[in-house]
Each structure stands twice: as C-alpha cells, then as structure tokens.
Write a structure and sequence with these properties.
The protein has about 240 residues and is α/β, with parallel strands linked by helices. About 30% of the residues lie in helices and about 30% in strands.
Amino acid sequence: MKINTLIVDDDPSWRQTLSEYVALMPILNLVGTCSSAMDAYARLAEEEIDLLICDIEMPLLTGLGLARSLAGGPLIVFVTSHPHYALPSYEVAPVDFLLKPIDPERFMRSIERARQRLLTDPEAIPIAPYFFIRENHDYVQIPYQDVLYIRAQDHFLQVVTPQKTYLPMLPLSKMEEQLKGDVFLRVHRSYLVHRGAISVITKNEIYLTNGEVIPIGDQYRAKISRLHVDGNLIRK
C-alpha cells in the first residue's frame, strides 16, 4: 500500500523538512509540494491524493479553509506553529494536529493513523465528534461522548470525563460557540452538560449518571424544559 501524499506549506524550509520526513516513510509516495492552499486545490483536481500534510496559516486561503472546501477529500495531517488552531481544526476531522517543530516519532504515529484510517471503510465506522485541548505540549483528542460536563472555574475550564478532568485556559462562552450540534446544554452560567449524561432533572438541579449534581440557573430553566424535556416527555 502506497499513500499518495501532497505537502502544502508556504515556508520553503518547511516544505523541504516535510519532504525529508516523507522520504523516511516507505509507505508514503510524495506526489509533490505546494506553496499555497490555492495551488494545492488545483493539484487535487488533477491528481489522486490520499493524504495532505498541510500548514494552516497561509496567505489567501488557510489550511482550514482548504480542508472545509474538500468534502470527501483526502485525509489531512495539519502542521502549524500556531497552537490556537487546535480546537477549530477538529471540525474537519483531521488525522492529526502537529505543532512545529515536529518530533519524528510523533510524525510516524500520525502516518500510522492515516494508514489505519485508509484501511477502514469510512461508512462502516463513522467518526464520532471530538475536540482537541492543549495539555503541556500535546494536543489531547476528547470525544464528545466522553464528556460529562464542562465547568467555568476562574480563568480556565474543567472538562470532566469519567477518567480525568482537563483544565484548558478558555472562557466557557468560547467553548460553547465552538462545540458543534446540540450535544451539550447550557444549564447554568458556569456549566455545560452533555445531554446524554443527564439522569434526573429537578426544579433546581440536574443529577448526572455518575451521581454528580449540577445546579440549574434560573435563566436557563425554561430553555432546559423546551430543548431537552418537552419533546421527549411521555404523556398520559
């Protein structure tokens, strides 16, 4: 199996570095390099590409913009010097998000992920929604389904899962606007709750499946009833 690979980066030194990394991986076939997302878009129309190794911050069209335009397109490994793109990047389901300078072992793991995804029928195993948060120098992928609730705490968040609590430096409002769909419900000025983690709703509190109790803010009570309860209430 050979993975046809296209490198997209506006920095010539990084195009060279990434080309050298690709040359070290026998499974990768380097089709070419592009200095802009617009050039890559044209190249993709002409050749069959399995994998993009793509910078994000580029002139005219960003790597994220390119990815959004490629419905059903090639797999993408993002490479960037800008860590704040980690969370927005999840919406296009990249194989990985690598922060420059790139560790060779980390690069190899990304390519293995790409290989495994190409071997899997995408219709047989849909990708569950997820987001990334930064933890030290790593980017941790957290599936929506693993999150019980998200709480605002001073200048950071508590993203609570059954296994671990993560502490990203982010306002709750910013987190809420970037989460997709209606999986999470704002129930208090300091809390977002995963709707699937709700066990019991009382007048003033929400009991979760793990036994924790979340307060209901007065201004959110009617919205909780309208969005989460009314349409699913079994009536007499």
